[in-house]
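writing this on my phone so excuse typos. first protein, seq and then structure
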Amino acid sequence: MLSASTLRIAYAPLGGEDPVPLLDTTLETPFDGLEQLPHPLREGASFGTPRSLHPYLLQNRYDRNRLAADLDCLVLQNEHLRATFLPQLGGRLWSLLDLATDRELLYRNAVIQPANLALRNAWFAGGVEWNIATKGHSPHTMAPLHAGRVDGADGVPTLRMWEFERLRGVVFQVDACLPPGSRALFIHVRIRNPNAQAVPMYWWSNAAVPERDDVRVVTPARSAYSTSGGLTMREVAFPRHGAIDQSWPARTEHAVDYFFDLSEGSRRWIAAVDSSGHGLGQVSTGRLTGRKMFCWGTAAGGRRWQRWLSPRGGAYLEIQAGLATTQLEHLWMGGGASWSWLEAYGDVAADPRTAHDDDWAMVTGHLAECVDRLASEQVVESAFAQATALADVSPSVMLFSASGWGALERKARTMTGRGWLDETGTPFPEHTMGPDQHSWRALLEDRSEPAAVLSYADPQVAPTSYVVGEPWERLLSGCPPSWLRSYHLGVLAHAAGDLDAAHDHYSASLIRQPTAWAFHGLGRLASERENFASAADLLRAAVALAPEEPSIRFEAVTAALESGKSSAALELVDSAPPHTRAMGRLHLIEALAALACGDLERVRRILRAGVVLPDVREGETALSDLWTQVFPDTPVPSDYDFRMR
């Protein structure tokens, strides 16, 4: 049975996208020490990391004020399980409930509180998320997916969710099915590359499960690649290395990733089992080769992150499955290629004494049998074949609409003679194109007066969307000169790493019309070239033209500090409008500017008053570092301690 419903939950809304593009960073922290890894892992980690997330914009306008909200949800149910999905939040599998025992197999957060852990900033804890494109939480993790019902020949419904992924230019779909009698939820994933050229590809399915003292993570591995202890990766024995059995996440002191080295020929599975023997198990067909465990650890910083992400209580860990051994790697996906696999999720229902025994070989052998009972290799292959046969069947009912980027991409490729794919199973309706696609659609269709909309755009208002690649650069170049035309050409060159061309286009835009957006682009270029004094001046000019835009002001203050202009940094802080002045991020950079000016009392006053950073970044220790500098004899308050290591 497939039905539509709503989920009533406390939710901190996203508040819209940041209109200022970030073109020179992916927000992901690079790892060191890769030369110590085996050659296949080093090779996979040597390519594919994008210069930026362009054309996506950041989702950083949220706060920590949660309101009661009714979110759309789509529910699959049979006599054993109820699976609840959130199509407007990346198609997240939010709940997987065992109906006989009323046991929730996933970590179901009591709130949806965005935090700065994803590629576009906003992310939330709980459920199972689908991560595509590149290392990190997906650009779609807090964005809607299209959704529809697909009817199988046997009458069993499949929930299909899909979108056009703009970074790699591919289409992905997630098909969920819960056949009668099945104790496992089947997830069929397909990625299609309509491009003539190969693209780097990445996928990880991340399942959050409850973390308690009695929960053990089991997978058929005796070694793993671990990030414990810093931003390096090393091979370690598993489950035991050092004094602690690492298969018990609640015994781990610091935040850690374990990417498991699974033996050739073994089934790919992972499970989290509690003292009753119950817990989530996940198994897949062979293409999804990687398995991982992540936990926050028991140290102060890890506990703080758990409270931050689950402010109404609760703790979680993650068991994950991916295309490669580690999340540092990409795989080349050939032009025109289609990749698919099947995942099965359900209760492993293990014998608790055996599952928690000290004999690892016995434990993994027993859990392998439990996984086989849940979803045997034959059952999984049969479900995979059925899902593959349905992959191109048109949805009988559209249940949810997402962005218009897929529809625009189809139109752009059709009108410029470039290949596309068969949309029958994953339609991108024309009506989904909205304001974000309006000017780009006009650029494609208006042959008599190319892109008049670009000529009359308000320079005081930030562009709301961006594009990448062919045919947009050619089409823009053919438009009548305007500040916006030159600005968009600058953004395209900047995103591609052609800094000289970007500089020329931004400068041409400023000659036609001084705007904060072109000044910002030049400021980012100067910063990238380590010309910090010039960056500070350019970003200050951008602030003067867009004083209400907080992200530009934050960058301007930071650039002023980097160039040694601490007094100018404080002036930018003090002149901020009230809504920006109240933001936690400004309080932090105010304290940093005051410290640079030697005004320790001002720093102490700010810290004592309390700084709340809704967008504190995973791994960011600015608050604890600042506290230690000005209060060296006082322990860091728990609210400021986000140190993961």
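second protein below, same order as before
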Amino acid sequence: MRPPYTRWRALLCLLLLSWGAAPLYAAPEGQAAGDTVVITVRDIRRLNLRSVQELLNHIPGVRAGENSVSIRGSRAVRVLLDGMPLNDRSAHGVKLEMVPFRQLEKVIVIKGGGGTFYGDYSGGGVIRFITRRAGRTRTFLELYAGSLELRGLRAGISRQAGAWGLAAGAHYRREQGYRSNNDKEVQRVNLKLSYQPPNRRSGRGPSLSLDYGERRYGSPGYPRHPTPRARAHNQSLGACLRWQGRGLASGTFFTRFRNRRTDPDRGIDSVLTTWTLRQDFTRRLELPWLGKLHAGLGLQNEHGQGTGLEPRDEQTYALFALKHLHRGRLGLRLGLRVNLYSAFGTALNPEARLSWRLGPAQVWAAVSHSNQTPTFRQRYFRHSTLRPNPALGMERSTNYGLGLCWSGPAWLKGEVSLFYNQTQDRITFVRGDDGVGQYRNAGRTCLQGLDASVALRPFPWLEVKPSYTYLEAKDQDTGLWLAGKPRHKLKLEVVLRPRPGSMLGLHYTYVGRVFTRADNREQGPAYHLVALRGEYTWGEGWRLFARVDNLLDQDYLYADGMPAPPRTWQVGLGREF
């Protein structure tokens, strides 16, 4: 391994070279329709969604928990907040609580691709949360409460003063939980400062965002192996500085995650802290023979230390380029990313996408390759249900997609997609008979199937949205079904709007049976879930909202074998002024 000073010298040289090159160009907003879903703030308000989880679970093929996201059965999903990664390298999962939900401008979900511009951990896709810049002065306050001693508060303010804008927000949530030692407390604050030059032709001015989140919770363990006194405390800090002007787009990102686990019954008191500093540049180049193409440079240093892990630094350098070709109704996109890792060697991530527009319909086909490096936690962390595996290696995924999307009259839209994901050395959690597991490279695995959705609006007051995902998930070396991957998932959402300012929504979900262990020795049965939500607005910005989850009080299991919550409810009151 190279000595640290040599790697940092290379990092500095690449940084200096990037500033001396041609003008940069911001990465495109995502992929074309068909393999990408774009949800705007207008859509969020119209659907009366109340959380990041509700929003993501509204999208066909996407499944989101409190700290996890999967797309078409794959949890290798890159999640970004204004370009800042939310994938926690110190604790398994995604820090969704850091997303300021009420300040979102747009959400972009790329299914089964996106690795060319967004890098590692995108074998399943990419989710981008984009927040609004401060505009007119606005303030919102929201209080809610519910079953299991749920209490919550959301507040925020934004103000524009000349070319300067300021936005700030906070969220606090606490609940007792439905199992012994299942309580949780979450708090988050965010601040965003932006400047827009008077001459907009000079580009988009700088913006600085700061986000902090903290989560304390009990870890009850598996039903057969309870951990009644195990506790966890997670802290998240993120900062990003973005600037665009004269064709140059630059993003500097810093994240710090700290995870502590204690279990006095097993003598465990473990701490793991990671921080990541990343610099991204993108530009549009004019090259001989190749013409115009989007290109970029990424530089990253990741640091980890904690119980059982001496301070360790790992670097990643990336070069990427994307070329668009259009001829009539045909469109072609070709991309390539080169990743150089100080700990895992070199990886190439190519992608190609072909689309053909036929009136209101579009047919598309895509192929992409991406990789995922194991986290410090997966390799070195130990707690009551996890033992370390320092030899864990990198996984590589290849995605193939074929789809048709159609948008005819305003009241009818639909799409269907076929997907095939093959992964080498897939990183998976294998649980032992003692309730303690380990992350391992599971050889060759395959995720294949289809997802389809239809959006109907036959009347202004009625919306119907059915969707279905079929998934086959197998370990190709053993023939076993992958744990936590149901074969069938059906969603149906019906929204009634009897009068302006009011809505009533019914959400039905069917999830087929799922194996809860990698050896297929245990499985959870299929289940049906029904949720109701409603909202009523009146006066100057007042809103009353309510929600009931698991209306039928189904007894079911999560994909990892953990018991899921019974019927729960919440009601709240908010005002925007």
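Residues 504 and 534 are 4 Å apart (CA to CA). thats all i got for now
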